[in-house]
Amino acid sequence: MENNVVIQVNGVSKKFCRSLKRSMWYGFRDILRDTAGLRPRSDRLRRKEFWAVDDVSFELIKGETLGLIGPNGAGKTTILKMLNGIVLPDKGSLRIKGRVGALIQVGAGFHPQLTGGENIYINGAILGMGKREIDKKFDAIVEFADIGNFLDTPVKHYSSGMFVRLGFAVAVHCEPDVLLIDEVLAVGDEGFQNKCFNKIGELRKSGTTTILISHSMHKISTFAERAILLNNGHPRYFCDVSDGIREYSKLFVRQEDLGIKKISSGNDKITFFDVSINKKTFNPGDTFSISMKYKSSVNYSDADVDIAICSSNEPTLYFQATNKAYNRNINLQKGKHELKIKVEDIRINNAIAEMIIAIWSKNRGELLFWWRIPVEFKGVDYSTGKNFLNVLYEIG
């Protein structure tokens, strides 16, 4: 294992049994074989068994971030559990240098009858921190977790979001050399998720090696340098994260949806025409504008104008906003006019996506316009925070 390599995984496989009774029987037989000094039968499948992870290999150096992607049940969490020592591989080997901080399962490592403060000490000890180190970092952990008056409450009364806040706070303050993050962050609110990913960015700059599991391709493209796509336990490796995201997206494409574009350009009272966007390929930090001319025989006051950017082939929403979110009243007046929308400082990394514009009459009573166009985002910017800093609306 080279000096700069922090995680080394060689041909790791893990199998499980679909039948609980058979699993217990196999376990009993394996214990007997081990007691008798016989070689375990871990390299082949027995009845009702399957490979949850099949022959995975990779290396990560200090400060590198790997994205583990794939559908539910693909084997992603099993890999993290093996790296964290929760389960052992049936084949292959793995090595990790340094202290590991992990957030794999909501509530893992917490005693339900003890308070949040008491569990900070227990969880910190599990992660390798001594009492003096925890004492020194206790206030910072509590401040980051932001659990308020619930610090002295037994954690059995915590919500899943509070579990995650406390668990993540302890994990990152142990100053880990390796950070393992599962999709559990998704149960936190948006503000806390941003706070967590800002912290992940800080840890990466300080040299922490990270493995991130997420169904949000925006987060994967923002933080990961490489990706492994798992499907039914089988890995595919991508040095270019955007290539991995495209292949992941293909897993969710239905043949009947290919090529379908639903477009509404008006009704018998209003018609939109000459719709254009000033660019279709973007780099992080770019600004773009959309313009559309319309002709109306009536006044549409207090209209709703939606703009969204989502992944082309899977349900990842990168950004969504309405004029109401920006306290901007839109009145589509009778006659011939032009509506312009400007989005400043776009922050999406390496993605094939679709831009969607929808316009509704007052109180969303009628859909007046729906427009979709494919766009592409290139390059990487590891800045965190809001995807868009400002959206401007103008009617001429």
Structure, explained:
With about 400 residues, this protein is an alpha/beta fold. About 25% of the residues lie in helices and about 35% in strands. It contains eight helices and 19 strands. Helix 3 crosses helix 5 (about 160-175) and helix 4 packs across helix 5. The chain is elongated. The protein starts with a strand and ends with a strand.
Q: What is the radius of gyration computed over CA atoms, rounded to a whole number of angstroms?
A: 25 Å
Helix content: 10-25%
**CATH superfamily annotation of the domain at 270-395:** abc- transporter (atp binding component) like domain
CATH topology of the domain at 270-395: Coagulation Factor XIII, Chain A, domain 1
Q: Return the string of H and E elements.
A: EHEEHEEHHHEHEHEEHEEEEEEEEEE
Q: Mind summarizing the main beta sheet?
A: 6 strands, mixed
CATH class assignment of the domain at 270-395 = Mainly Beta
Mean pLDDT: 82
Low-confidence stretches: 254-262, 384-389
**N/C terminus separation:** 65 Å
**SS-based class:** alpha/beta
Global shape: elongated
Question: Could you give the count of β-strands?
Answer: 19
How much of the sequence lies in strands comes to 25-35%
Biggest sheet strand order reads 5-6-7-3-8-9
